[in-house]
Amino acid sequence: MAKRNQTIISEFLLLGLPIQPEHQNLFYALFLAMYVTTLLGNLLIMFLIRLDPHLHTPMYLFLSNLSFSDLCFSSVTMPKLLQNMKSHALSIPSAGCLAQMYFYLFFGVLESFLLVAMAYDRYVAICFPLRYAAIMSPRLCLSLLALSWVLTTAHATLHTLLTARLSFCADNVIPHFFCDTSTLLKLSCSDTRVNGLVILFIGGLILVIPFLLIVMSYARIVSSILKVPSARGIRKAFSTCGSHLSMVSLFYGTIIGLYLCPSTNNSTVKETVLAVMYTVVTPMLNPFIYSLRNRDMKRALGRVFWKKKISFSLKQ
């Protein structure tokens, strides 16, 4: 009898952000500007790394992949959010919802693995400077990237397949601006215990292990610096690791606030704000962190535009 009363859900409704109607246009312009800034900033970093031979190093290989990941991660949720805010088309097909969930998990976790690879690169550069070229060989760098992409694909595929097998009954309203895994589980009328256990175990490993590896890398860096303390060494370490530490703080700070510090009061509003920080603000700030705090990127920008200026002058 219960099965006969179940309705097959072909689409979901995304409620979006809790914004008053009179403020919709203002926030639409704000989010559109942030999304365009994210696209242009990350494309610029990828463009500079591709064109400038001085940036063809392991660190910038990882950074170009990180910029690509940030660009795609923001593009998973922002176009649909902007469409909903402008046209109030809240519906999303169930297949589209699963696809959005897959790519959200994919690019979110990929960033975590890439941050680990960048932390290891900084550890080798500071603790073993004379052996850096031998250790961070092209083969090792490509292996780290391939491992990151393979593990990320497996993780996102597992969660998507487990969610796809669930049944959804009458309630198809998602109180969020994208198809979040935990929100979909709450709407399901199936047994979600397996999904919950997988999220708790695999999700915990995916978040905790990369974070611990980053902490271990920087603990070794600090230990190496303290063995031979000098103002020059400290400045070099800070200039080398400062940008990466800022990115790690932004990335894991929002994750800890979102998943490890739950709030009973206004939890929906808090989760939405932190999700915006995680999916919109962080990918936008990463290019600024690297372009404003990194001398190599500033010099590369100058070299590329100087070459373009000379080339344009010669053509005239």
Account of the 3D structure:
With 316 residues, the chain is mainly alpha-helical. Helix content is 78%, strand content 3%. The protein has eleven helices and three strands. Strands 2-1-3 form a three-stranded mixed sheet. Helix 6 runs antiparallel to helix 8 (193-227). It is globular, with a radius of gyration of 22 Å. Residues 1-5 have low confidence and may be disordered.
Range of helix content: over 70%
Order of helices and strands: HEHHEHHHEHHHHH
Structural class by secondary-structure content: mainly alpha
Number of helices: 11
Strands, count? 3
Mean pLDDT: 83
User: What is the subunit organization of this protein?
Assistant: single chain
Largest sheet: 3 strands, mixed
> Which descriptor suits the 3D outline?
globular
Identify the strand order in the major beta sheet.
2-1-3
Unreliable sequence segments: 1-5
Subcellular location: Cell membrane; Membrane
Membrane topology: Multi-pass membrane protein
Function: Putative odorant or sperm cell receptor.
Organism: Rangifer tarandus platyrhynchus (Svalbard reindeer)
Brief digest:
By secondary structure, the chain is mainly alpha-helical. It has helices at residues 2-5, 24-51, 58-87, 94-127, 132-135, 138-164, 181-187, 193-227, 231-260, 267-293, 295-315; strands at residues 11-14, 91-93, 173-174.
